[in-house]
Amino acid sequence: MNWPLETRRRAVTACRAGRPYPETAEKLGVPRGTVSYWAHMDRLRRGEPSPLRPSACPKCDGLPLDHAAYSYLLGLYLGDGHIVNKPKQQHLSLYCCDGWPGLLDEAEAAMLAVLPGYNTGRRQKTGCTELKSYTKHWTCLFPQHGPGMKHTRRIALEPWQQTIADEHPWPLVRGLIHSDGSRVINWTTRQLTTGPRRYEYARYFFTNKSADIRNIFTDALDQVTVEWKQANAWNISVARKASVALMDEHVGPKY
User: Fold this and answer.
1) Is 45 helix (H, G, I), strand (E, B) or coil?
2) Per-residue b/e over 18-27, b at no fewer than 16 CB within 10 Å?
3) How many domains does the chain have?
4) Count of CB atoms within 10 A of residue 32's CB?
5) Longest CA pairwise span in the chain (Å)
6) Quick one: which H or E segment has residue 83?
7) Which domain holds residue 188?
8) CATH number of the domain that 128 lies in?
């Protein structure tokens, strides 16, 4: 697209003044990549080197890490997240159903809490929203990244991840349920002397093809004394009244 020269001039002026690319792009209605390219070409013409962005990675730089937020984000990533890791494009993507806007906001807040130095973005898809965070450091924080779908390869937590999961099991359970789980209402009937009576009860399901990820989920449930059972090949069920009450207190339905 051929942008007006005045738009380009305003963008370059804003970048020279230190305005963030996303802010400038939003204000002018221009893609962020276009603003970045204009700023890059402007620096080349002036003989100014590209600025080196300081790293802000807890693993690379020993910075503090919000363990509770990380445990929740780990659950989201293991459930339905993936990392694009190419030479010129690195980002973490999570897909959230548009019917659960609160979950989308919570996922974004967790991203920003874990890596506060990096921006997030949202991209509307059919029936869902793709939440992205752009930085190569997501592969440092999620070493489970690799080629192929998660259920086709081994998934195991690193010792430092397991320590965090042990410290904060409920956020991990919450993240896994928010990604690949559900809270449903089941019903059954019992024959009484007065006739059949309908009973309803809440139940949680976690569905994932990866046995390793299901084991991570059930290990966390064991730690918080939630009773579970293998419903079928891919499903973990929580139906005991006391265990459902615990799940309702710490997880609850998607929102």
Assistant:
1) helix
2) ebebeebbee
3) 3
4) 17
5) 91
6) strand 82-86
7) 178-250
8) 3.10.28.10
